[in-house]
Design goal:
Pfam families: fn3_6 (PF17766), Inhibitor_I9 (PF05922), PA (PF02225), PAE (PF03283), Peptidase_S8 (PF00082). 17% of the residues lie in helices and 27% in strands. By secondary structure, the chain is α+β, with helices and mostly antiparallel strands.
Length: 867
């Protein structure tokens, strides 16, 4: 029975439409007042009333998904004209084109101290995530892998009745399994062609597996963060060309909410250059808002689009956004050059039959051809690489495919080399031939050796699994960075977690002699996709402890607060977390968030910051300038904005303060809740950057009031930490400030090919570390210079508008145009330039203007130094 006050919206035309003109739209509508939806059929009827008709000319249905919980709306095949006509219908809010999202691609439980004597798995906290259900939205799962055995698992929670589409049923570990393939599908969510979902699920909640390794490397006992948590699988990502369609992702979230999962594990995000620009265009953020309102914790990947700023794939305050760091483990493969110098790289495949002797070294990309620079498919024909060690840059195709190309051409081994953008982050992949993946600085020296020797040689030796490498953890180059301008200065990402060379479950055999499906195979993967399930599993541990201790379940914002305020800002040696993209700089708040997640401390955070539902509404009203229609997309009813607050006033466990030339004072308040012992005293303190004057209230028992006022003088740094101490505990509140300057000078570049750029723009100015200011902008007007380069030599004339010391300038000043890139290529002429170098670091997939600039900085001593 379908009850409605008034009539359903009429069909407006009879055109059938055809698939060549239609695309998938996600349509947001208001719930009709006074209507009770009694079933899925009634909901579909309501949604179909917005459509011009129910089928296309091909007979395919227009309506793909009717969403019940994630959003108020549906996904359908429509033309732009049909969407435009729909805007006149009562109840219509917005239609967004469905977007293509992408996946953000053993030992870590020890690295995070879960299994230590007083860790989160210790006797007093030994619930291992029991009773908690993690909803994994990904590429499916390999059900028969031992990581998903139900040995030692408790029965599924009472009342759980989600569908299982595996023919033989599920078990006590995997308690739900569904697929979404352009409509809810009965297909089993198997994961034999991608592996990503299997790997992610194993990291979050894989059961204990003894004797796990990858081709004999990193042997040990594998386990997820929450090995006794249950998993419900929602396959929303498919092989190319389908990928992770946002319409299907919303369907998976919708079903997970209805099923009653406790955590949403989502290791996917926007493609590069398509990061969300506003919340009303971010359908996933709208869906996770609905999940949060139901008490479900959304855990999302920051993205793999670093190291550039403003590249986050998720930025909603109710989403836990996770960046990626390295571990102190390396699978060592050492390159020794003919002159005796050694460079440590990585690879998982380490054959003991590879000869320990020097072989000729060859660099196919020395001619400047991109396809040979990256050893792309069929690029080595006509080049003599037989029996030689081949040098290939990262980029273009997967590193393992490069090795296949080298092996096909007769090469004996391969050196995979980082560009400057990739910094020190290397991969221990399961290659099919001997390989060493080296960092940028080492690659540069190997290239220099090759260029200066008429008969260069090298050999690769294998050192197996090495622990204790420093610095660790370090921020991976690919980890996406803030700020996210559209979220009202909410600091993102939130935290980091291990995401480089993570060992976890894998559905098929790996290495040079694969034999198809295996019951017990593991693999190394890197990405924020790998970091995110670490946090999802830790959240399960927190929820499980509260549940089994019969304590009040914390709200999603309180759990988020516990993770953020207890994160580690220092590495294993007590030094600031290092950024692998910049070689010698520590990562700041906009890059690494609050720091490395600390599972043990997060279970006892002391004080937490809670956000009430009505505060989120007020925040959205502020973000959308009291546009009730946009806010209603989140609340799913007709919401009128009666109160609005700016982002910095949301009771979030970090503070991002916008500062402008007219800003004399900004007052920020926070409310804390004591979830620790009943009688604890916290002393408030403030670690301030230059130019920030704090105001502190007296110490209070059972909590403290944070400094209320932040006064701007001359802002120079932006990495203070707000701390409240209680004996051996502390609560920290990350604080980030940013301001803007307008370029007062015309930017004018004249390149040899006649390309030029000129214009005035507004740019962010953000502090990089405590000791180094980092300026992003092509025309800040602080320095002027002239460069003239001829062939292999570069004569430099510099004219500076400030007194800048020159000792730290590198001897060869290189600007690269990557439309036709080759290593060590000098600019032939670049004159009358007045600009700073932009943050856009050389990348073979960027445009000319994006690729022309290299990252530099000015230190506090006034030196102009390369980073």
């Amino acid at each position: 029975m379908f009850l409605v006050h008034g009539q359903l919206l009429p069909i407006i035309n009879d055109s059938g439409g055809n698939t060549s003109q239609t695309q998938i739209y996600i349509v947001h509508v208001l719930k009709p007042e006074g209507v009770s939806f009694l079933g899925a059929e009634d909901l579909e009827t309501w949604h179909k009333s917005f459509l011009p008709n129910t089928t296309l000319d091909t007979g395919e249905p227009r309506l793909l998904y009717s969403y019940k919980e994630a959003i108020s709306g549906f996904a359908a095949r429509l033309t732009p004209e049909e969407v435009n006509a729909m805007k006149n219908k009562d109840g219509f809010l917005r239609a967004n084109p469905s977007k293509q999202l992408e996946l953000q691609t053993t030992y870590t439980h020890e690295l995070l101290n879960l299994s230590t004597l007083f860790g989160a798995w210790s006797t007093s906290n030994s619930f291992y995530g029991q009773g908690i259900i993690i909803g994994v939205l990904d590429t499916g799962i390999h059900l028969t892998h031992p990581s998903f055995s139900d040995v030692g698992m408790p029965p599924k929670p009472m009342g759980w009745n989600a569908s299982c589409n595996f023919p033989g049923g599920c078990n006590k570990k995997i308690i739900g399994a569904q697929s979404f393939y352009f409509r809810p599908s009965a297909r089993p969510p198997t994961d034999i062609d991608q592996g990503h979902g299997t790997h992610v699920a194993g990291t979050a909640a894989g059961n204990f597996v003894n004797n796990a390794d990858v081709l004999g490397q990193a042997p040990g006992r594998a386990a997820g963060m929450a090995p006794r948590a249950h998993i419900s699988v929602y396959k929303v990502c498919w092989p190319f060309p389908i990928g992770c369609e946002s319409a299907g992702v919303l369907a998976g979230i919708d079903r997970a909410i209805q099923d009653g999962v406790h955590i949403l594990q989502m290791s996917f995000g926007a493609t590069r250059g398509n990061e969300p620009k506003s919340f009303d265009q971010d359908d996933v953020a709208i869906a996770t808002y609905s999940a949060m309102q139901k008490g479900i914790f959304p855990c999302t990947a920051a993205g793999n689009n670093g190291p550039n700023p403003e590249t986050l794939g998720h930025a909603a305050p109710w989403d836990m956004v996770v960046g990626a760091t390295s571990t102190d483990r390396r699978i060592r493969a050492t390159v020794m050059l003919g002159d005796g110098r050694e460079f440590h790289g990585e690879t998982a495949y380490q054959p003991n039959t590879f000869p320990n002797k020097f072989l000729p070294l060859v660099f196919p990309g020395s001619n400047g051809q991109n396809n040979q620079l990256y050893c792309l498919n069929n690029s080595l024909s006509g080049i003599n690489v037989r029996g030689k060690i081949v040098m290939c840059y990262v980029g273009g195709i997967d590193n393992i495919l490069k090795g296949d190309e080298v092996r096909k051409a007769g090469g004996a081994a391969m050196i995979v080399m980082n560009f400057i953008t990739l910094g020190n982050t290397t991969s221990s992949e399961a290659h099919h031939l001997p390989v060493s993946h080296v960092n940028y600085k080492d690659a540069d020296q190997i290239i220099s050796y090759f260029s200066s020797n008429s008969t260069p040689t090298a050999k690769i030796t294998f050192g197996g699994t090495i622990f204790g490498v420093r610095p660790a953890p370090a921020l991976a180059y690919f980890s996406s960075r803030g700020p996210a301008k559209y979220n009202g200065n909410i600091v993102k990402p939130d935290v980091t977690a291990p995401g480089v060379n993570i060992l976890s479950a894998w559905p098929v055999d790996v290495g040079p002699f694969p034999s198809g499906l295996k019951k017990k195979t593991f693999n190394f993967l890197s990405g924020t996709s790998m970091a995110t399930p670490h946090v999802s599993g830790i959240v399960a541990l927190i929820m499980s402890k509260l549940k089994n201790d019969n304590k009040r379940q914390w709200s999603t914002s309180e759990i988020q607060s516990a993770l953020i305020t207890t994160a580690n800002t220092f590495d294993l040696d007590g030094k600031p977390i290092y950024d692998e993209a910049t070689f010698n700089n520590s990562a700041n708040i906009l890059q690494r968030g609050a720091g490395q997640v600390n599972a043990t401390n997060a279970m006892d955070p002391g004080l937490v910051y809670n956000i009430e539902p009505e505060d989120y509404v007020a925040y959205l009203c502020g973000i959308f300038s009291n546009n009730s229609g946009k806010v209603s997309m989140f609340t799913k009813n007709n919401t009128q904005c009666t109160r609005s607050i700016p982002g910095e006033q949301l009771n979030y466990p970090s503070i991002g303060v916008p500062m402008g030339s007219s800003s004399a004072m900004i007052t920020v308040s926070r409310t804390v809740t004591n979830v620790g012992d009943a009688n604890e005293v916290y002393n408030g303190s403030f670690t301030e950057p230059p130019g920030v004057a704090p105001y502190e209230r007296p110490t209070l028992s059972k909590g403290f009031l944070l400094p209320e006022s932040l006064k701007r003088k001359e802002m120079e740094q932006a990495i203070p930490v707000l701390i409240g101490t209680k004996f051996d505990d502390f609560v920290q509140l990350p604080l980030e400030m940013q301001w803007t300057v307008v370029n007062e000078n015309r930017v004018k570049l004249r390149y040899c090919d006649g390309a030029s750029f000129a214009g005035d723009s507004e740019y962010n100015v953000i502090a990089q570390t405590i000791n180094t200011l980092y300026f992003r902008g092509k025309g800040f007007g602080m320095l002027s210079f002239r460069i003239c380069c001829q062939k292999d030599s570069c004569l430099q004339k510099r004219h500076y508008s400030q007194d800048v010391q020159l000792e730290d300038l590198q001897p060869s000043f290189i600007v690269m145009n990557l439309l036709n890139f080759s290593p060590r290529q000098h600019v032939k002429c670049l004159s009358d330039a007045r600009f700073f170098f932009d943050v856009q670091i050389p990348n073979p997939f960027h445009s000319f203007l994006q690729s022309l600039f290299v990252v530099w900085s000015i230190s506090r001593t006034g030196k102009f130094v390369a980073i």
